[in-house]
Specification:
This is Helix-turn-helix transcriptional regulator. This protein is α/β, with parallel strands linked by helices. It has 13 helices and six strands.
């Protein structure tokens, strides 16, 4: 597929446009569903971009909304066609968080708070493999290898020299103290964190234990922002069986304010590098005892 076609983003944009047309018509999702003899949940899924949309769906919806401009209909039909193409991640088979990967692939910036583990985009291969093995003890090795490979491919966003992702990560001290994969794996992981922190588009801050209670105490989340103003920012919260995507402006604003407080309470960049290096030294001392 063309590199500039991201099916996840196409679905979001198409869904936003269909929602706009519905609201201009003054109809509720329930009313549209009744007209098309489908469930209200289908209309909602089409509008939030979580479900693939066919050209027939677009045609039917444009009919309900009485869209008479053929150029608009043709444009929406093309977006529907593009949204059904496959992103690079589909080559790895069924990935449970494929919607997030699609968003991350097209994002301009990512702000993430991780309380338990090193953020995926900053993980070494050995750390990622040990982490996934621990999180999915009953998964076959083929699934583990697939997830590790996908994680490694995602990291192209911060290692590329052309339009890299602007990454800001606040990491709780617990993520650095939790021994994943053994001492040597942790030493290599911490050294990589320090190395990556020198990239101009990567900012890493550690939130030490002695900071006490803080706005991120309830758990991990990420805020994705996109280069096209037509694409609203998204708050992503990872779950065990399903993930949560928040796109309402009030929700995004609330999490953004929380993130500003986290950044203010965390160590600055230089302090963070020294802090991580000191923790790495403790692992090295343990390995020689």
């Amino acid at each position: 597929m063309p590199s500039n076609v991201n099916p996840t983003v196409r679905r979001r944009r198409l869904g936003q446009e269909l929602r706009r047309l519905r609201e201009l018509k003054g109809m509720t999702a329930e009313e549209v569903a009744e007209r098309l003899l489908v469930s209200q949940s289908k209309i909602s899924r089409l509008e939030n971009g979580r479900r693939s949309i066919s050209q027939r769906d677009v045609r039917d919806l444009c009919g309900v909304y009485e869209v008479e401009d053929h150029r608009i209909v043709d444009s929406l039909m093309q977006m529907a066609k593009d949204s059904r193409q496959q992103g690079w991640w589909h080559a790895f088979g069924d990935i449970p968080y494929s919607v997030y990967i699609g968003l991350e692939t097209d994002a301009e910036s990512l702000r993430v708070y991780e309380p338990q583990v090193v953020p995926g985009l900053l993980q070494t291969r050995s750390y990622a493999e040990a982490l996934i093995n621990g999180a999915l003890p009953e998964a076959p090795q083929t699934d583990i290898d697939k997830r590790v490979s996908v994680r490694a491919r995602r990291q192209d966003r911060i290692t590329t020299q052309e339009g890299p992702l602007r990454l800001w990560a606040v990491v709780d001290e617990a993520a650095l103290r939790r021994m994943v994969g053994g001492r040597q794996v942790m030493i290599e992981q911490l050294e990589q964190l320090v190395e990556l922190s020198h990239l101009p588009h990567v900012t890493i801050q550690v939130l030490p234990f002695d900071m006490g209670a803080h706005p991120g105490i309830n758990g991990q989340y990420a805020i994705l922002e996109f280069p096209d103003t037509a694409d609203s920012s998204v708050v992503y919260i990872e779950g065990v069986t399903s993930d949560l995507y928040l796109e309402k402006a009030n929700d995004v604003q609330r999490y953004s304010v929380m993130y500003e407080h986290l950044r203010a309470q965390a160590l600055n960049v230089e302090q963070t590098r020294h802090y991580i290096a000191d923790i790495a030294k403790t692992y090295a001392q343990l390995s020689t005892d």
